[in-house]
Structures are given as structure tokens and as C-alpha cells.
Amino acid sequence: MAEMKTTAAAAGGLATALAFGGMFTIAKSAFGRVDPFHLTLARFALGSAIFVIALLVVEGRRALRTDGKFLKLWGLGSLGFAAFNLLAYAGLQSTPAPTASLIMAAMPAITVIVMWARTGQRPAGVTLGLLLPALTGVAMVLGNGNPLVVLTGGIGFGGLYILAGVIGWVIYTTGAVGFPAFSVLRYTTVTSVLGTVTIAIVTLALGALGAIPTPGAADYAASWWQILYMAVPATVIAILAFNHATRTLGPANGVLFINLVPITSFAIEAVRGHRPTTAELAGVALTLAAVIAGNLYGRRITKRVAPAAPAPAGETGKPLTTVA
How many H helices and E strands in the chain? Predict the structure, then answer.
């Protein structure tokens, strides 16, 4: 039974990587008609509506309650849905889609740091040591072979916006362990609805101030397939699958699948005619090698110290594995 849950979670993590891999390329193709803010609002308005319908059918109206944790859920939803997506898409305007997807490869390293702050449990020296090459690989791609460009600001604000959004996403996903009574569907639905409220407030305020354009009905109609992709595969399917993988496998293992996102994105761009530079390929290889090495080390340590019969994550609300 436990093996089946693990397999299902792994399949979900793979589905997330594939859906997210095409997300940046597809989103960027819509920017000519719909700006990032209104595109994000349309995406999550539709995605949240699907989440709510699914939750009502599966768990009933009581599952929409926040159980006295409204502000915490709103804060997490705002970080995971509003901050991550608004910052990522704002950065995507000046950042190539493959590069944007590679920045997500920093997520495992950020997860280690966030979990350290949450639990107070210091990661092993090997894990911390592998963070440097992982982040260096990302910086190599951003700096076209020169990782120091990141420190000098040569990459512009686009990449930094995306990185800040990734940090918000990590805080959101790891925050799920604080709601053991919430199912994956309930946590995802409630936080997505509250996060969408934040997206609406920011978007409408910027539109009213004239800081961003307001698309017309024809613009939305012309971008219907991008919005549909963003709302269903890249939101409903991908986020539910990722939250399930994170809860079942633990944050450190679940987030490993995010490292398939840049591979998927680079493959899509290669089909479309993009030829990655040697520096990009070297950066991708370095990042993935460091992350995979860290994960394999973590699995070995976990097996060595794990109890004979660990409780399933779905019953305790805690991950099956810890950050090594």
C-alpha cells in the first residue's frame, strides 16, 4: 500500500514537471494580447473555480472553512499563487522561457533552507555543500557562462523577480505541513481562492492606476487556449499533483521533480528552433548533478535512520522523509 502511494506521488511529480515545463513558453506567447497580471488573474479565476467545484463534490461545503486560520491560509495562498506567478510572469517579459524554467531548479536548494528555518534541524554538511554547485549552475545560465554576473546585477531584474517568486512558492508548499487536518484538495482549494483574491486586488489596482493595460474581450478570446492550458494542466492538475507529491514523499524529495522542468522547457524550445549555448548546457548539467547527488545522499541517510514502520504522511500530516 505504501509503495502504491509512493508510485502515485512520483507520477504526480512527473506530471507537474511536464505541465510546468511548457508553462513559461505558452504564457509568454500570450503576452502580446494579455499582460502577465491579467493572464494570471484569468488563469487562477478559472483554476480556483474548478478546485471549488471538486472540493464541494468530494468533501462538501464544510471543507471550505478555514478553521480559524484564515490569515495564515491567505498569507500562504498569496505567496504561492499571487507572489510566485505575478513575479514569475513579470520577470518572464525580459527573460527567455528556458532560463526562467531553470531558475525553478533552485527550488530544492531553497527548500532545504526553508525547512531548516521551519524545523530548526540543520541539514547535513554534504547537503549544504551541494547547494553551492546547484546555485552556481543556475547562475551560469543566467550569466551566460559567468555566474558572477548575477552578483553584479548584469542579468537585470527579470531573473531576480522569478527567483523571489520561487521562494514564495517554496514557503507555500512547505507550509502545508502546518495543516494536517486538511486534505491536499482542501489545502490547495482554500489557498488558491484566497491567493486569487490577492491577484485580483493587485491587478485591478494597477489597471485603475494605468500602470498596466486592460485587455479587451477580443484579447482574451485570442488567448483562449493559453488561458485554458494555464488553468487546467498547469494549475488544477500540476498543483494538486505537486502538493500530493510533497505531502507523500516529503518536501525534499517531492521538489526534486521540479528539476525536470528546465529539461522539458529546453526540449520544447529546441523543437521550436532554439539551440542552447555551451554555457547553458553546462549550467543545466551542474545544477541537476548537484541536486540528484543531494537527493540520493538524503535517501541513503533516511533509510539508515528511519524507524521500522514509519507512519504514512497522509495520516500524520508530516513528510515520510526529513531533510538530510
Answer: 17, 0
